[in-house]
Design brief:
There is one protein chain. The chain contains 32 helices and 14 strands. Strand 6 and strand 7 form a beta hairpin. By secondary structure, it is an alpha/beta fold. Strands 5-11-12-3-13-14 form a 6-stranded mixed β-sheet, sandwiched between helices. The chain has a 3-stranded antiparallel β-sheet with strand order 2-1-4, covered by helices on one side. The radius of gyration is 41 Å and the shape is elongated. This is Wobble nucleotide-excising tRNase.
Length: 725
């Protein structure tokens, strides 16, 4: 089994460079990656998807740059492309190509194949015979299905229904026609033209009128084609050689025909009399004049050779069927061999399909799991289970929408369903197809690197937990190696806990000098617990202030809350508060002995904040820790408010501000009419980037983690420059 997967990529969809080894050696532990928005997480998934599709990645914005990508195992061997499965956040059109493999019952399929093998052999023999008269080199079954308006898999049923007509030799006069010429796509399109339809209808009416006045022929009963067939049969059966004759009746008179030649001459003379009628010839010329393209001219030439065909074109669907029946008549031996085999096997096949309908399949397990776990307003079923189990046809998934008035669930078309579902519900349906693919790979024993790109995005909590539960099922499969990418920190933290991911397998995405890095996540499940034990570290102490302030507010310690607020907003006592004052406040909020003594730091807190921020800004690496980002945000806001207070210069107004101080100061400054544009732009950026970051609780890591360390450092430098100007 694969223990590591190493990726090396350059210039791939916005990723300048990335080298990383995903380690699955610890009990096949998944790799979980949290990537803030804009750090090209999706580009990694897209590159892997291109690889799986046997395509090369590219740099869309700079196509002249050469893209490189490799993905290898611990031996240096390239990962098989089929073994890479990328799951996007949503792809409503996705459908697993392996779904049918979950349905096959090996025992029943073997029996079915044995019975159907002989049928298939005889069907192939008939279809091969039909190629020559039809002029079609392939897809005979599709052509027959189209003519008789049935599904391709139901062609045998359609052929069996024609048995009586074939026995009677119906429509044999058409057996010499070429289906390929008469019913090409161009011809069929041409025949749909309303003007052409009118011409053909007019021609047919005149033809029928002339036929009614014929000496021998009669509309719908006996025409020249029937007569030619009879003449051929009389000859093959030695009728005239035996001394017999034929009487042709015309009105009250009869003509005795005693030789084959006389019969053929009489038929031909009557036929020409009809087809050369001036009115009919005029109508034929009108039809002929509309045939312009090369393909249609071939059709015209065919009509000139077979003018009686024109009258059949008024009902093109019926004509198609008659032509096929005529071919079957001419190939009766092959046709009846097939039908006999089919009829004798029907009961056996029916019995096997009945058993298949009752079989419990992996497919049903998937559907049951989906219906049980996911909260959606529909249930999923399969309608053609017997055929699907035997791989006779693809499984037909059907949907039943629940009736909120307690009525029976209603079968609903997929297109209608899509229009009525929320985005989250559509994504749940997408997950169903993903589960089919995963289960098919599990059954086939395909070792797979599964890359999941924000799979739970836009789901409600119940469905999000259903996905996590399924990820846990996948984790237990030793052949599946999971790389889970997300920009949702809540999902990241939940997956991390439920799938028991720890150590270097929980990663944060970071950009450094254009290159992408996946670095171990140093944030513990409860960073505040870690902070309490390390408050003697200045950056940790500063970062802890917002958290302890929240605790003071929750427990109703108003004095502590107001003091700590003075360290997050510029108040009268802000610059006077000492570290010793801060220790006293912490002692009033936190339980004795639950945190480290930080009295050794000394000095006042405001200066400590500024010193910590200065040190952070001197770091070369923009990958800042949680506590560094919080401390920097605190410093940015304090400096920004001091700048605004100095610029406004209205002490009485500032003293009246209670909540939302930063926003109120910015609005007051903006309305003063005497703004420095540089200062205004800087403080507005402060308002955008820092407020929520400072109000921390256990549910609000994401805003601060998403914030770029580079942007925070740049903002601190800009606002500091405003203060010093």
């Amino acid at each position: 089994m694969t223990t590591t997967v190493s990726v090396n990529m350059k210039n791939c969809y916005g990723i300048d460079a990335l080298e990383h080894t995903f380690d699955f050696s610890n009990n096949n532990m998944p790799v979980l990656v949290y990537a803030p928005n804009g750090v090209m997480k999706t580009s990694l998934a897209k590159t892997m998807r291109q690889y799986a599709s046997n395509k090369e990645p590219e740099d869309i914005f700079f196509p002249e740059r050469k893209s490189e990508f490799s993905v290898v195992d611990e031996t240096g061997e390239a990962i098989d492309r089929e073994s890479v499965f990328v799951i996007d956040s949503v792809d409503e059109k996705y459908q697993s190509s392996r779904i049918s493999t979950l349905l096959a019952s090996e025992e029943l399929k073997a029996r079915y194949d044995e019975i159907f093998g002989s049928i298939a052999e005889k069907k192939e023999k008939l279809f091969k015979a039909l190629k020559k008269p039809s002029g079609l080199s392939k897809d005979i079954d599709a052509a027959i299905a189209g003519a008789f308006k049935v599904r391709k898999e139901d062609v045998l049923v359609a052929l069996a229904r024609l048995e009586r007509e074939v026995k009677e030799g119906a429509h044999s006069q058409f057996s010499g026609l070429k289906y390929k010429i008469l019913f090409s796509d161009k011809v069929l399109e041409f025949l749909q033209n309303s003007d052409v339809k009118t011409l053909i209808d007019d021609y047919t009416k005149i033809y029928e009128q002339i036929l009614d006045s014929s000496l021998y022929f009669k509309k719908g009963v006996f025409n020249h084609s029937n007569a030619e067939t009879i003449a051929k049969n009389l000859k093959s059966n030695g009728w005239f050689d035996g001394g017999h004759s034929v009487n042709l009746k015309h009105g009250d008179e009869r003509s005795e025909i005693s030789t084959e030649a006389e019969l053929i001459d009489a038929i031909e003379a009557e036929k020409q009399k009809i087809l050369t009628d001036p009115k009919l010839a005029e109508m034929f010329q009108k039809v002929d004049s509309t045939l312009t393209t090369a393909e249609l001219r071939s059709f015209r030439d065919y009509l000139i050779e077979n003018p009686f065909v024109v009258a059949e074109l008024s009902d093109i669907d019926a004509f198609k069927q008659r032509v096929w029946i005529s071919y079957l008549v001419e190939n009766g031996s092959e046709y009846f061999d097939l039908i006999e085999e089919y009829d004798s096997s029907k009961e056996k096949i029916k019995e096997i399909i009945g058993k298949a309908e009752k079989e419990q399949t992996r497919w049903e397990s998937v559907i049951s799991q989906f219906n049980d776990r996911f909260s959606v307003p529909f249930t999923v079923k399969v309608e053609n289970k017997g055929d699907a189990v035997l791989n006779v046809s693809a499984p037909q998934i059907t949907f039943y929408v629940e009736d909120r008035d307690n009525g029976a669930p209603r079968k609903t078309d997929r297109n209608v369903l899509d229009r009525g579902l929320s985005n989250g519900e559509k994504r749940a349906l997408y997950i169903l197809n993903i589960i089919f693919e995963v289960e098919a790979r599990r059954k086939a024993g395909i070792e797979t690197l599964v890359v999941l790109d924000d799979i739970a995005d836009s789901f409600d909590y119940k469905n999000k937990y259903a996905i996590i539960e399924y990820l846990n099922d996948m984790r237990a499969e030793e052949r599946f190696h999971l790389v889970i990418l997300t920009h949702n920190y809540d999902f990241y933290r939940t997956v991390r806990g439920r799938l028991r991911i720890y150590g270097d397998n929980k990663l944060l995405c970071n950009r450094l000098n254009g290159a992408l890095q996946l670095i171990p996540d140093s944030i513990s499940d409860n960073p505040f617990e870690n902070w309490k034990n390390n408050l003697e570290t200045p950056v940790v102490l500063v970062a802890s202030i917002p958290f302890v302030r929240n605790l003071a507010e929750y427990v109703g310690n108003e004095a502590a809350f107001q003091t700590l607020t003075s360290l997050l907003h510029v108040k009268e006592q802000t610059q006077a508060l000492t570290v010793q004052d801060l220790l006293t406040v912490y002692q009033s909020v936190l339980a004795e002995g639950s945190f480290t003594d930080f009295s050794g730091i000394g000095g006042n807190v405001f200066d400590l904040v500024m010193t910590v921020c200065g040190q952070i800004c001197e770091l070369d690496d923009d990958n800042l820790t949680l506590e560094q980002k919080i401390a920097l945000s605190v410093g940015i806001r304090l400096v920004a408010e001091q700048v605004l207070i100095d610029e406004i210069n209205e002490p009485d107004y500032v003293a009246t501000i209670g909540k939302h101080q930063t926003g109120k100061l910015i609005r007051r400054y903006e309305r003063s009419g005497d703004c420095d544009e540089k200062v205004l732009r800087a403080v507005k950026r402060v308002a955008l980037m820092t407020p929520e970051n400072i109000h921390l609780n256990s549910f609000m890591f994401e805003p601060i983690l998403d914030m770029s360390g580079h942007h925070l450092k740049a903002l601190f430098a800009d606002i500091k420059a405003c203060a010093e100007a």
